[in-house]
Amino acid sequence: xxxxxSIDGLNIRPNGVYVDVTFGGGGHSREILSRLGAEGHLYSFxxxxxxxxxxxxxxxxxxxxSNFRYLKxxxxxxxxxxxxxxLADLGVSSHHFDDATRGFSFRFEAPLDMRMNKRAGTTxxxxxxxxxxxxxxxxxxxYGELKTARRIAAAVVKARSLKxxxxxxxxxxxxxxxxxxxxxxxxxxxxxxxxxxxxxxxxEVNHEMDALREMLLAATELLCxxxxxxxxxYHSLEDRIVKNVMKSGNVEGRVEQDFFxxxxxxxxQVNGKVITPDPDEQERNPRSRSAKLRIAEKC
Length: 299
Hints:
Elements (H helix, E strand, L loop, with lengths): L2 H6 L8 E4 L6 H9 L5 E5 L15 E4 L6 H7 L5 E7 L4 H5 L25 H7 L2 H12 L4 H12 L7 H8 L11 H20 L1 H15 E11 L2 H13 L7 E2 L5 E2 L2 E3 L9 H6 L7 E7 L1
Parallel strand pairs: 1-2, 1-4, 2-3, 4-5
Antiparallel strand pairs: 5-9, 6-7, 8-9
Helix pairs in contact: 6-7, 6-9, 10-11
C-alpha cells in the first residue's frame, strides 16, 4: 500500500537505522532494504506467526517477533539509542482478511477469533460472551462508530444467555437486522456497518489504539533530528491519533506554545495534506481507498 510514497517519505539515509513496525508480507521492508547501504540496518516488527514466513535473509535485517507497542524495549535490547526513520502501515494485512480461518472478515464462516497474535490474548468470542452489556456498547460505539451500538449490545447479551456466540455467521445473523440506515436492515448500509462492527471487535481484541499510542510516543523519543515518521492509516480513529502526535507530540493533540506564542512540537509535517493512493492503486486494491499517508520529520 502506497509503497513508493511511504518509503520516499522516509528520505532514507543509506547507512541509517530504520524500523518497519508492521512487517506483514514484507513488501515495505524489502523496499527499505533496497535503499540501504552496507552499514544500514532495518528492524521489522510483527506479532503474527504467519508473517515469519516472509522473513528476509539479509545481514542488515532483524525480525522482531513482538507487538510494536514494545518498540522502545526492543530497541534498548538491541542497543539502539536512536533511529533515522519509522514506517507503520496500520490496520490488518490483506492476508488476514483473506484467511477464512481467522475471523477477521464477514465474507467467511469462521470462529470468532480476530487475534493478530494467535499465541496469546482474548478472542472476539470471549469479548462477546463475557463483556457486560454497557462495555460492549462502548466498544461498538467508540471503535465502530455505530449508531445502534446499544441495541447490538443488548441483542448479543440476549443471544449469549441461550447459547455462547462462536462464529462470524452467528454474529452476522444477530446483528444484520440492526444495521444499515436507522438500524432497519437497509441493504445499502448493512455491509458498511457490518465492516464497522468487525472493526470494533478487532480493535478491542488486539488493543490497537493503546498499542498505537505507545508506539508513536516511543518513536517520538527514538527518532533522531531529521528522522522521519511515515504512517499509513485506514480509519478515522487511528488517523486522529497519528495526526495529533505529528502536530503536537502528544496523542491528545494538545498544542503547547512558548512565551511568544509559537507552537512547540517535536515534528514538522512533511506533506501539507494527507497522501492518498492514485486511481490505479485504488482500482487494484479496493481497501486502499480508505488509506491515508502522513509524514513528519523530527525537529
